[in-house]
Backbone:
């Protein structure tokens, strides 16, 4: 639902098996600036409620079956919990409608319709929904005050991650972040640090992959002058430099076993000894570790110490691969486009629908890091105010599977028609029913939009 100059524009589903009557109701609401979808039977109503998003449902009580309207009400309550439902009924069905009020209906209105009464009733229902959304928005804004910067997404898996971060950021409990390469493990570690009491102290990252035991020991614990050839001065290790702050050990699963034992000793004692010294130095460090390995399997194979695993995994946070949260791809792509366009001091171009479809179908083996790189390249080569498929690298375009090959992810069960229909609804809602503006946002001609409005029964 959008609001412009105190005018609310809502998404309304009109269900009536009499086409002329449905048109009259839809036209009355359209004149108020609302976007109406019309269907004429229970099955179509259930399909719209399953795949669409509505603020108000107006349904005839009795259609092919006497219980159809009540089924629409029940379906709306389950699939559109934030919407309100108004029943349209003949005089003899008033007792049934009164019973429906106890089951969650907003109100009912009798036939023949008094359009002034109908518009007033629907406006009240829409204002109720708007107030509820406003309260939710205010809570979200309050939550944003304590947001975890850079973590973008609205999928259930990411909401779960953010919830865990909010819960444990203020503590000093060690955290183990798992996930494939490129999923944003260091970003999560940085967010934990930034939202903790240690935020004003150092955040010190170290990638353990490919480092020998001697180099890793020097990096972690430091050395004193003369400890080895070339040690011409004392040097702090990462533990000391992170004192009162956060140490982030990336790819901790690649740490040699001997170093695992030395790391465990420091975590148990809270003291480090520089190479070449006998003096123990106390450190207060919160440890955040990350890996793309299955550490529990490595423990079984004797490749990772079990006692160290329990020490570093006070809290475990798993970051899903981007192919497991495809609904976040548009948000991420636009986020990166805005960032890189701002760096070039130019407005962020829009993604055409075909381009976004390519991005959502690709499996992203490099995850968020790869998506960010691809969007950056697209911004560099873009020659207009819209990102088209020709701006996508051939690797992405040629590797994108068809919609039928996406597997059991967030798009399962949605046809391209259903996705397109919801995109049109959203565009019309955002521009208060202005077809010219909606067509521009969608990247299609106004005549094409008009044809699709008729095709999908949108008003």
Residues:
């Amino acid at each position: 639902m959008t609001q412009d100059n105190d005018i609310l524009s809502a998404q309304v589903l009109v269900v009536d098996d009499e086409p002329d009557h449905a048109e009259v109701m839809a036209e009355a609401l359209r004149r108020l600036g609302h976007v109406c979808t019309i269907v004429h039977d229970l099955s179509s109503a259930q399909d719209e409620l399953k795949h669409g998003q509505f603020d108000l449902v107006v349904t005839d009580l009795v259609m092919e079956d006497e219980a159809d309207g009540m089924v629409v009400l029940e379906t709306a309550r389950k699939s559109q919990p934030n919407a309100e439902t108004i029943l349209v009924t003949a005089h003899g069905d008033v007792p049934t409608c009164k019973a429906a009020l106890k089951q969650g209906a907003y109100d009912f209105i009798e036939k023949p319709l008094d359009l002034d009464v109908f518009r007033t009733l629907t406006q009240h229902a829409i204002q109720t929904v708007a107030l509820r959304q406003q309260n939710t928005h205010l809570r979200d804004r309050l939550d944003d005050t304590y947001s975890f910067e850079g973590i973008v997404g609205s999928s259930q898996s990411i909401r779960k991650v953010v919830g865990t971060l909010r819960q444990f950021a203020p503590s000093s409990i060690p955290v183990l972040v798992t996930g494939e390469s490129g999923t944003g493990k260091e970003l999560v570690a940085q967010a934990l640090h930034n939202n903790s009491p240690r935020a004003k102290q150092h955040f010190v990252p170290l990638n353990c992959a490919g480092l020998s035991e001697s180099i890793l020991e020097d990096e972690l614990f430091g050395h004193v002058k003369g400890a080895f050839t070339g040690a011409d001065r004392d040097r702090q290790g990462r533990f000391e430099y992170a004192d009162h702050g956060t140490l982030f050990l990336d790819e901790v699963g690649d740490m040699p076993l001997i170093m695992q034992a030395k790391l465990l000793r420091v975590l148990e004692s809270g003291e480090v000894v520089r190479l070449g010294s006998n003096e123990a130095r106390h450190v207060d460090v919160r440890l955040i570790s990350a890996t793309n390995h299955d550490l529990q399997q490595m423990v079984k194979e004797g490749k990772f110490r079990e006692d160290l695993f329990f020490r570093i995994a006070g809290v475990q946070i798993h970051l899903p691969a981007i192919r497991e949260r495809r609904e976040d791809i548009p948000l991420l792509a636009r986020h990166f486009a805005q960032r890189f366009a701002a760096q070039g001091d130019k407005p962020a171009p829009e993604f055409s629908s075909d381009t976004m479809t390519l991005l959502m179908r690709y499996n992203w083996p490099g995850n968020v890091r790869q998506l960010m790189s691809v969007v950056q390249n697209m911004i560099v080569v873009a020659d207009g105010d819209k990102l088209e498929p020709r701006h996508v690298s051939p690797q992405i375009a040629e590797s994108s599977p068809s919609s039928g090959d996406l597997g059991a992810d967030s798009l399962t069960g949605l046809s391209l028609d259903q996705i397109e229909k919801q995109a049109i609804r959203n565009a019309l809602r955002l521009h208060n029913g202005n077809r010219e503006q909606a067509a521009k946002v969608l990247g299609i001609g106004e005549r094409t939009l008009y044809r699709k409005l008729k095709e999908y029964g949108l008003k």
In short: The two ends are 16 Å apart (CA to CA).
